[in-house]
Amino acid sequence: MKLKFSWDTGIGIGIILFGVFILLNALNMPDMPLGLGPGDFPEIVSIGLIICGFILTFQSFFISEKTKKIYSKSSVKDVLILIFISLLYVYLVKYIGFLYLTPFLMLATMYLFGYKKLPYAIVISVIFTLLVYYVFYGIFKVPLPQFSLF
Predict the structure, then answer these.
(1) At residue 133, does pLDDT exceed 70?
(2) Is residue 111 part of a domain?
(3) Cα separations in angstroms, 79 against 87, 91, 131
(4) Residue 132: which of 104, 102, 112, 105 has the closest Cα?
(5) Which keywords does this Swiss-Prot/TrEMBL entry list (predicted)?
(6) Contact criterion met (CB below 8 Å) for 29 and 39
(7) What local confidence, expressed as pLDDT, does residue 59 receive?
(8) Do the domain assignments include residue 113?
(9) Which is it for the CA torsion 3, 8, 11, 15, positive or negative?
(10) Residue range 41-57, pLDDT digits in tens
(11) More exposed terminus of the chain, fewer Cβ within 10 Å: N or C?
(12) Angle of helix 98-112 relative to helix 118-133, nearest 10 degrees?
């Protein structure tokens, strides 16, 4: 059997290497005497990335599909807009705060990818933001960026 190197193989190997990088950095974080430490969640995510990378690499070697994805210019444009919005979010979140800015990011993302029901999108983005805030700030005690005038 002849093994083929495809885009999926390269992306799978890249995901594995990225997962290993995150895992090695997470293992160097300090342990907490009680509860979850700062490295526990990145360890779990990195193990998931490594497993997904192995699955993608395995599939690319042994599953032969003759499909070719053709992406339209509008879908590539949407992804580039999402990258720009995400970078803008990362820059602005330290000034505006997680609670105030995250619903707008979610609304923009939902609208960008075709969800046009505005009332439902507002409710979903606000509830999801509050849920994430409660889990990370309330339960895990992870400080999230807060709004500050100064």
Answers:
(1) yes
(2) yes
(3) 12, 18, 26
(4) 102
(5) Membrane, Transmembrane, Transmembrane helix
(6) yes
(7) 86
(8) yes
(9) negative
(10) 889 999 999 999 999 88
(11) C
(12) 140
Residue carrying structure tokens 């609670």: 99
pTM for the predicted model, two decimal places: 0.63
Query: Is residue 132 assigned to a domain?
Result: yes
CB 26 within 8 Å of CB 46: yes
Round to the nearest angstrom and report the end-to-end CA distance of the chain. 65
Rg (alpha carbons) of the chain, rounded to whole number: 20
Tokens encoding 102: 């995250």
- DSSP structural state of residue 137: I
For residue 67, give the amino acid letter.
T
**Cα–Cα distance measured from residue 124 to residue 147, given in angstroms and rounded to the nearest whole number:** 22
Count, residues in the chain: 150
57 and 87 fall within a common domain? no
pLDDT tens-digit series, residues 104-114: 999 999 999 89
